[in-house]
């Protein structure tokens, strides 16, 4: 059964990746907005923001930009799922002897790979803008692991509207609140500068712990409990979103 699932997923993953390679503009579009935000915050607002971190502002805000890159990219997962639903390809898959969940996993893994490419592009631009990190291989691998888990979590959320939306716009519009969430966190300014209620929300939402953990890893500082809270959020969201996505999928193909 496992071999059957893995083979089916690999075959469908190849199909999804071919769609990506035929529309490279998808990845380009995904990276344009985060890079534009990074340029604006560093060169327009950066001089007026005191983070108290002692490092350059691009170093401070890059973790938040990476999360926005992922939130922007997963909208295309919902879009691709919606288009597959409307084209009737799911019905054709149902008539084939393939594992049902492999269809969704192929889209999810495609999202992870496409977002990794976008993240690499954003980091390269950040390096050109002055981002520097003394982090070693283990720290970079830890950052990559957190970003992959965060991508998985948001992608499984994206699967739900991708399967259930009535319009193409509705399938991708869900990502807007996710893109906005880093602005209500420690991504761009310290939470201590925020008003009471906003600060309370910012300090107890998942993006803040994820941003703090990545920032500490880049700066070779102790990550404290942030990394465990970040991992707990990512794993928890992934599990809940996966269960809801599978329920939605079964209802749609029943």
Automatic annotation (TrEMBL):
Record localization: Cell membrane; Membrane
Bilayer topology: Multi-pass membrane protein
GO molecular function (one): ABC-type transporter activity
Keywords assigned: Antibiotic resistance, Cell membrane, Membrane, Transmembrane, Transmembrane helix, Transport
Source domain of life: Bacteria
InterPro entries for this protein: ABC2_TM, ABC2_TM_bact-type, ABC_2_transport, Nod_factor_ABC_transporter
KW Lipid biosynthesis (keyword) present: no
GO BP term, example: response to antibiotic
Cellular component terms per the entry's GO annotation: ATP-binding cassette (ABC) transporter complex
Regions crossing the membrane: 27-49, 61-82, 103-131, 137-159, 171-189, 227-249
ABC transmembrane type-2 domain ranges (all copies): 25-252
Key word Secreted present: no
Family of the protein in this entry: Belongs to the ABC-2 integral membrane protein family.
Protein name stated in the entry: Transport permease protein
Organism: Sinosporangium siamense
Lineage: Bacteria, Bacillati, Actinomycetota, Actinomycetes, Streptosporangiales
